[in-house]
């Protein structure tokens, strides 16, 4: 199994993504954003960072990259696609996932550990978690406030497309770090093969890094293929 | 081919909370200006070739559609002029 990690100018979680994928036993290779073919890859990972310096809007310019045609193809064909943080912003800007990520309500770049509740466990990304389990994952973003119009939001909730929601780690009331609607931290598409999320599972795969709650997400990708 | 300059204004849709605007509003109030509200947007000045004003307008609108995110933004072609 081999995954592509797309590098945009300004990506900076690409190495973390590789570390996490390889820790789960998945081969990974970097792909520059000007590539037009992702042939030979089983999945594609859009890493976090500051593509194009967040100019225009976070993820907006990266979403127009040549490689995104192929990411679209992966999404359409049911192959796994993961976008984390800036990668999630790129997926929404490209229209592969609905909604948008706006400036955090408090306008702060927020870098801390948050609670993230697992809402669905029937996806390759979440099959090794328990429904309702609250993960401890780091966030690091300034534009993470998930927004979608009322109709889209109702559809997301109605069809169960919310995969992760911010949740208290220990009873705190201000657990939503950015003002996301419905505490949304991560969503999927109708087919369940595209995952976009603001928290960083790839930064939580080793005790040395402060926790391993992100590792099952990557291990699940392997199990999915093993059947 | 003649050159045109388009001024594209990109704003957050009405009803979408703009924390940047709120912060600016707060500072203006602190400085003694009784303002009702502030919204922060973006202005893009694009210079490009076109044969006619009509073609320039079409191109400018196409670029606006490409650069604004319809999920939360609207764009307006604020001005369009032929450059000398």
UniProtKB/TrEMBL annotation, chain A:
Gene3D superfamilies: 3.40.50.880. InterPro entries: Class_I_gatase-like, PRibForGlyAmidine_synth_PurQ. Its EC number is 6.3.5.3, 3.5.1.2. Keywords: ATP-binding, Cytoplasm, Glutamine amidotransferase, Hydrolase, Ligase, Nucleotide-binding, Purine biosynthesis. GO terms for cellular component: cytoplasm. The active site is at residues 85, 200, 202. One of its GO terms (molecular function) is ATP binding. It comes from the Bacteria. It is found in: Cytoplasm. It catalyses: L-glutamine + H2O = L-glutamate + NH4(+); N(2)-formyl-N(1)-(5-phospho-beta-D-ribosyl)glycinamide + L-glutamine + ATP + H2O = 2-formamido-N(1)-(5-O-phospho-beta-D-ribosyl)acetamidine + L-glutamate + ADP + phosphate + H(+). SUPFAM superfamilies: Class I glutamine amidotransferase-like. Its main location: cytoplasm. Pathway: Purine metabolism; IMP biosynthesis via de novo pathway; 5-amino-1-(5-phospho-D-ribosyl)imidazole from N(2)-formyl-N(1)-(5-phospho-D-ribosyl)glycinamide: step 1/2. GO terms for biological process: 'de novo' IMP biosynthetic process. Part of the FGAM synthase complex composed of 1 PurL, 1 PurQ and 2 PurS subunits. Part of the phosphoribosylformylglycinamidine synthase complex involved in the purines biosynthetic pathway. Catalyzes the ATP-dependent conversion of formylglycinamide ribonucleotide (FGAR) and glutamine to yield formylglycinamidine ribonucleotide (FGAM) and glutamate. The FGAM synthase complex is composed of three subunits. PurQ produces an ammonia molecule by converting glutamine to glutamate. PurL transfers the ammonia molecule to FGAR to form FGAM in an ATP-dependent manner. This is Phosphoribosylformylglycinamidine synthase subunit PurQ. It comes from Thermus scotoductus.
UniProtKB/TrEMBL annotation, chain B:
It is found in: Cytoplasm. Keywords: ATP-binding, Cytoplasm, Ligase, Nucleotide-binding, Purine biosynthesis. Part of the FGAM synthase complex composed of 1 PurL, 1 PurQ and 2 PurS subunits. SUPFAM superfamilies: PurS-like. The keyword NAD does not apply. InterPro entries: PurS, PurS-like_sf. Pathway: Purine metabolism; IMP biosynthesis via de novo pathway; 5-amino-1-(5-phospho-D-ribosyl)imidazole from N(2)-formyl-N(1)-(5-phospho-D-ribosyl)glycinamide: step 1/2. Part of the phosphoribosylformylglycinamidine synthase complex involved in the purines biosynthetic pathway. Catalyzes the ATP-dependent conversion of formylglycinamide ribonucleotide (FGAR) and glutamine to yield formylglycinamidine ribonucleotide (FGAM) and glutamate. The FGAM synthase complex is composed of three subunits. PurQ produces an ammonia molecule by converting glutamine to glutamate. PurL transfers the ammonia molecule to FGAR to form FGAM in an ATP-dependent manner. One of its GO terms (molecular function) is ATP binding. It is an enzyme of class 6 (ligase). It comes from Thermus scotoductus. This is Phosphoribosylformylglycinamidine synthase subunit PurS. Belongs to the PurS family. GO terms for cellular component: cytoplasm. It comes from the Bacteria. Its EC number is 6.3.5.3.
